[in-house]
Amino acid sequence: MSSQHQSAPQRAHAEHPEPRRIGVFVENNSLVVSVIARHATHMLFCVINEDGTETQWALYGPDCGIWHGRIDGYGAGTRYGFRAQGPWDPDAGLYYNPHKLLLDPRARGLEGSVNLSPYIYPHRVDEDLYPVALPMEMSTLDSAGHVPLSVVVDTHFDIAPKPRVPWGKTVIYEMHVKGFTKDMPSVPEQLRGTYAGLAHPSCVDYLKKLGITTIELLPIHAKCDEPFLAERGLTNYWGYSTLSFFAPEPTYATVEAQKRGAQGVIDEFRGMVSILHQAGIEVILDVVYNHTCEGGKTGPSLSWRGLDQGLYYRQTPHRPREQVDTTGCGNTVNVDHPQTMAMILDSLRHWSLNMGIDGFRFDLATVLGRFNWGYTPLHPLLMAIATDERLSLDKMIAEPWDVGPGGWQTGNFPDPFSEWNDQFRGVVRSFWLSDVANLSKGLPVSGPNDLATRLSGSQDVFSHGTGYLRGPRASINFVTAHDGFTLADLTAFDHKHNQANLEENRDGSDDNRSWNHGLEGGLASDEESLLSDVGDGTGLTDDLRPMRHRSQRNLLTTMLISAGTPMITAGDEFQRTQYGNNNAYCQDSPISWVNWNHRPAQKNQILTTRWLLNLRKNHPVLRPWTFATGTVTSGDSIEDLSWYNAHGQPILQDAWYQIENRTFQMLRSGFPFDDRDALVIINGTLNDRDITLPIGHDVDWRIVMDTSWESPIDGGIDAEADWDGLPLDLELVSSRTTLNIEPLSMMVLLSDVVCSLDSTQEF
């Protein structure tokens, strides 16, 4: 036991009246405590005093595996941990070691950080943190002072009401709390890279002006770096290494808030959410319930492992020390057990109800629907989320895969979940980038069939199973995310350049479907390279830069006029680069931080993104909420969705796979939306093409977007205006006109009239 103990443990003053209420809560000048450790023989609740000594309280139990008690005289601000005594049998998955001070799995506040050293391991390890003996021997090193402390906190002020942005109007913006404002010059230096920085007026104004309704934050649950990263002097910047499912990461708070302890961090986070809500912006958290930072069987004992590894982690039934790993991170959270499911549900409710969060993106969400035999969308945990009277009102987004058998489950999550659509990402990249690279080499490529399916909402993926009623909003349409190339890098690199990760460029995906346009490296935004192997742009010709910029506009425009919910990765709207790194998870550096020093081409792309989001906001025909049927809606005179070749003729069934039809047209009737018709013309070839417009409602058109424009200004558009309708000086095109479209570009046209019931009767 720790040499810091003041005296022998005292018995808790009374039993917990409701022991199944797991956690530590303040009630009437007392703390009521419950913690699960089914195989422990003794459990101590350890209050950490100001001088670092411990006052230990022996809990009652176990009652159905729960240890509990009421301890008088303590309240908010109490720092504590647990010490569990029980059998030491790693082969049976039992790691009880009273020398380890354990974090409460449900602690709402956290103070301190993990010192990656032999002190935090339940077994004896050498200086490289590897076991010194097999079978593993119990460590007698006390972890107190080397691990963070749990802290009792409160939520003493109200948060502004949730904006509740409808799915049909949602535009998601994925960002990192630190990286977004770390170098943002309009944010005061002391606030940069913090929760408060994200709530600064200049940051909020930027998001509002761009047209963002919903920000999705990379993990902000308290985290712990992996030992192999610490050895290299790196950190888990993205945060997919969870230390606590209930407490926010303290280092993202301002220095001033951190000085106030865990309560200061909580208050700053909740204040950020409230300010964003007041601006009408939702906050979604990227949450990692599939694994924890404790790693595999030889990992540290920080919380769950020291209390009940068999409850919290999947283990092989005949050799419990072997952990089942369907995450690629050493362990997998065991959602088969009701208490583990309850922990996840309590965490979600805490963030939703107490912290004001508007939704969740579930990392490797297939894990959350797994039994030992495989995945099911009817898993009790998914059903509990879907039927919870409060959580079901929030936005739920699944990353629908893991690395286990049958791990790819896109389209197989139940309502109310939406899902990251990896098929959208792959098809759009292929059509505009890797296919075009093959075209330039005279190699065969696909026709428009796959892209047309994605433009119309990926009905092939999302129109079946338990979630078939969700419609296009089920598809989170994205071309880039935190994981992979940025939009600019997709157009500048054929190969990953991850040398800075110190893994000899072995990490990161090789399936990028990118195209460097003829020169590897050199940056689309003309920035000076940070990495010598990437290149400084020497040889980047005057015609190569515009080609890359146009390709980026093609990708952005395709995403923002497709049926489904778009997700923009922070900085893609101005050609942010990671210098060819497609796996910057460990780069807390300028490689990952957003660079706000914009050059003219970057400013043009911001204008383009603003204009596209303005169009999407004001014209529901660009964001249909139901799948099209290809039939004529009652009261209309044309199909709700129809497809045409360059000659204005319907594309026949056997022509969808033909390369010549990579120039094609999509016509959406505005009638179902009481809106204008939308005509999208796509030229995915290396030659310009003359386009005969389809007859449709036989009305004139306004060209609202042409990706050959360097910015909307080229089309006579003030992209910074907040248009309720279309500007009248847009180019007017007769329905009988033949248009010429440049190579590798797309045009978006809206009809000159709104197609309502009255107007369609006149056609």
How would you describe the overall organization of this protein?
The protein is built from 16 helices and 30 strands. A hairpin with a 2-residue loop joins β6 and β7. α10 packs antiparallel against α14 and α14 runs parallel beside α15. The chain is elongated and about 90 Å long. The termini are far apart.
Topology (elements, then pairings):
Layout: E1 10-11, E2 23-27, E3 30-36, E4 42-48, E5 54-58, E6 60-63, E7 66-72, E8 79-85, E9 88-89, E10 94-95, E11 109-111, E12 149-151, E13 172-175, H1 177-181, H2 195-198, H3 201-210, E14 214-217, H4 227-231, H5 255-259, H6 262-278, E15 282-287, H7 304-312, H8 338-354, E16 359-362, E17 370-371, E18 374-375, H9 380-387, E19 395-398, E20 417-420, H10 422-440, H11 449-455, H12 459-462, E21 475-477, H13 487-490, H14 544-560, E22 565-569, H15 600-618, E23 641-645, E24 663-668, E25 676-683, E26 689-692, E27 701-706, E28 732-733, E29 738-741, E30 745-754, H16 757-762
Parallel strand pairs: 1-5, 13-14, 13-22, 14-15, 15-16, 16-19, 19-20, 20-21, 21-22
Antiparallel strand pairs: 2-3, 3-7, 4-5, 4-8, 6-7, 8-12, 9-10, 11-12, 17-18, 23-24, 24-25, 25-30, 26-29, 27-28, 27-30
Helix pairs in contact: 10-14, 14-15
Q: How is this structure best summarized?
A:
The protein is α/β, with parallel strands linked by helices. It contains 16 helices and 30 strands. A hairpin with a 7-residue loop joins strand 24 (663-668) and strand 25.
